[in-house]
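Supplementary Text 2. Reproducibility record for the structural model of the 181-residue chain.

All settings were left at their defaults, and a single model was retained for analysis rather than an ensemble. We include the record here because the model underlies the residue-level annotations in Supplementary Table 4.
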Amino acid sequence: MNSGLLNAKHLSVLELECFPYRISATEVDWSQLTHLTFSKLVDIQETRKIFTRCTRLVYCSINISDTQTDFPLSTPLSLPHLETLLLVDRCALVNLFEFLDAPSLHVISYHSMSWPTNSRHSHLLTLLSRTGNRVESLTIDVQYYSLADLMQCFELIPFLTHFTNRACPLDTSEEQANNHT
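Retained model, structure tokens:
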């Protein structure tokens, strides 16, 4: 779908709060995009397409949901200018984080919809281990972390200046909370 607006050659900020179409079905000129906010749930394949096309991305806010947990990458996914990542992970994106190369990343808001278990560590640990200790601001919902994972998160970010414990933007149902306890 050729939308005109999304093909604007100088488009640098794109905020799609209630975008009813698959982003992959829309022709977008990603070359100048530095800020992206996409509130609709996006699947892993669309996330991959967005990240590979947005090489100048500085700010990204995205909600990822999929039943497929394998993020098929064999080479680094380079976002050299990405400074801020706000991510709601509804599908356990550990594979994405293993390949994400974001050397400028220093602000992270990460919310996982997976409760902690003794056998599964938080995928945020993978992301933080790849930031080179540059993260200065972290926002998470601590109820989704075991105490050991939470302590390890703080060990991986020695230059942290801002920490926020905030409930996930996508509400956890009362049933999920009751099943966890």
